[in-house]
What does this fold into?
Amino acid sequence: MADLTSASIPPIGPDDHVRGEGEGLVVYADLGCPHCAAEWQRLHERAGRLVFRHFPIASKRPRSPALHAAAEAAGRQGRFFEMVDSLYADRGRVDDPHLWQRAEALGLDLERFEADRRSTAVEARVRRDFESGIRAGVSGTPALFEECGHLSTGPCVQASDRAPGRRVD
Amino acid sequence: MIAVGEQAPDFTLRDQDGEKVSLSDYRGRKVMLVFYPGDFSPVCGDQLSIYQEVKPQIAEQGVELVGVSVDSFFVHRAFRETLGIDTVLLSDFEPKGEVARAYGAYFEKLGFAHRALVLVDEDGKVAWTHQSPSDDEIPGANLIFDAIG
It folds into this structure.
């Protein structure tokens, strides 16, 4: 059984989704969330390193798990952020045929994309991020944390015992 | 808030389907009472949505999650359907806020419950409480797991 007790957000790891260089922000986001889409535009205009972590809230947005799986599957072909950009830029088209169109537009191997997005490995990868967000007290999206330290240097500073991580939103 | 170790005041309220539910119905099991200000407020919706995502893990630890607010059971039913959640929601509607008052979680000035969590153990005693510093602040689900783990 997963441990969901309080913990700081995990340090940036080699399989995190990272874009940019410099001072970092870690964002826990839901690809079906309109507030996240707006925040995504704002984050685009900001210099620095951005780490994307999955936080789909399925009960609230039933298509979110499929969107996160699609992004993760695109990531397996090196196009994670391109898929995220695509999903946030055009939020009205989220059914399977739309996902196939997006994958095609990004030049993905469709057969592999389809297998990956339905795989248990992708599901587990998304769930891992989600659970780390739960442990850090994420209770809505988007949730932003300062990146404290560099790769593999340990957990982020705890702002308080009750709310691990230094949330900046 | 009610003190840890006290006997949790028993109550009988209607759930989202209009059925009467008593705290004593849960005797022998742990219950996490989730007091919240009101259905259809943005913060309350986020809170119950997040808890829904980890409800199976809460259940695995033998804990029932039960929401309580002053809304009528008709509103609770609509709220559950809108959120897509299956958490039991109890209506502390008449006399308004009586249960929240008994647990020290009622906000007299505004007429609704504070955002508070109360863990009741198998024997009906208060095992843990938490009240948000602000009613706009959602207690993360991690706090629930800290309390029941």
Notes: DSSP finds six helices and four strands in chain A. Confidence is low (pLDDT under 50) at residues 149-169 of chain A. The CA atoms of residues 25 and 50 of chain A lie 5 Å apart. Chain A has one domain: 17-146.
